[in-house]
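1st attempt posting a full record on here, be nice pls
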Amino acid sequence: MILLQTEAARKRRGKVTSVDKRNVLETSRMWREVVHRVHDEEYPDVELEDLLVDNTAMQLINRPADFDVVVTENMFGDILSDEASMITGSIGMIPSSSLGDGTRGLYEPIHGSAPDIAGQDKANPIGTILASFFIQHITAGGAYVDKTMYCAQISDLISSIIIYLCGFVLFMKHAMNSYAAKREEKAALKARAAEAQARAEAGKGGDQ
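the predicted structure (as tokens):
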């Protein structure tokens, strides 16, 4: 896992963040030793940052753009990935892939199968749709491709799609507000015209 993540970092921005709880857990102290040994021996050209998991939870909200590739153990990763997904506004927006050394992987939205909302027509499908791209390009037909490079590219694509969707939503909101304002203005003008006509007719009746 450390090798895959650091290799992905090398092909992206050249930075990997290792997350542990070294100040409390003995296993995390071993984790950090192994991460640094792999880094020093295999990837000295990649910038390595160490963060405690509680600090990482705060920094993901405080400075999310500073993170690119994060390597951590399963429990910390499960929690942090759910937290990070809310930066986009919904846990259903983000796809995930669990990859090994071969050509097979597990692809799903990071929320998993979400059985608690099954059949209620309210699950966000974007994460599932984007996860299908992982399947198509990484393991379709069993052909091997450079998974780390592709994941880097698809991550950039996902970011672009999210930005586009946010821009589209803002545009539609502005357009709907403008349309509503014009309708209200038109209705007000029509009401004033009707009122003026009523006063004019009332004046004519008084003259008679």
